Amino acid sequence: MTEIATPIESLSPLLDHTQLPESDGTFVKNFQEHPQSILLTDSIGSILQQCHPDGQYAIGQDCGIYWRQTDPPERGAEAPDWFYVPNVPPLLNGEIRRSYVFWRELRAPLIALEFASGDGSPERDATPLSVSMGGETTRPGKFWVYEQIIRIPYYGIYEIKTGRLEVYHLQDFSYQRLHPNGNSRYAIAPLGVELGLWHGTYQNQTQLWLRWWDFEGNLLLIGDEKAEVERQRAEQEKQRADRAEQKATRLAERLREMGIELDEADLE
What we know:
By secondary structure, the chain is α+β, with helices and mostly antiparallel strands.
């Protein structure tokens, strides 16, 4: 794919997130993308709060990362389905981020995830950026952009149709594909979590989902799941208290039959 390069000197000064398009006009490719992003964001919240007690981090969901100034601007952006950037403010000058402008903040996301509707070819495209003698620019593939320009340490590709997950780690200036552990999950060491696949129901869809686990093998729960766990714990406590009360009542009745009277304090 080629595009006519615009000489950098003819471009306006480097733009910020309020001046750049927040979308290239394409549709989300399937109904799972938005719930999947929300599921990942909701469940990892407690981990990020521990990592960033000052609240300095940002999560992008199908948002553009601007890495090169072009005309039109969106040709110089890639939009991971989900990404996390540590040590940056969640708001800029009190405004919600419309995009992540890499050339201004110069902090790479720690991890980017793509939810591939097809076979993952666009997500694995390692075509490099090149300019011909005639001034035509070859648009690079997103794999190359993430690896060679933005340099995102962890990159995951999840093929929704096949349930296939690949995770790459940036080592020695190139992506190396990671091998899953014994639980078929991938360690994201800086966060102290593992990324893997979970079969279950979320937002009325029963299928495979990307989820986080801690290093002890515990699934990181979303708000509804946490509430259900608390409800079950409260119910179990109530049942234990009821059984203890019933046991004490039976004991008191047996002692009375034997002619022994105890006050309530003795039964506690």
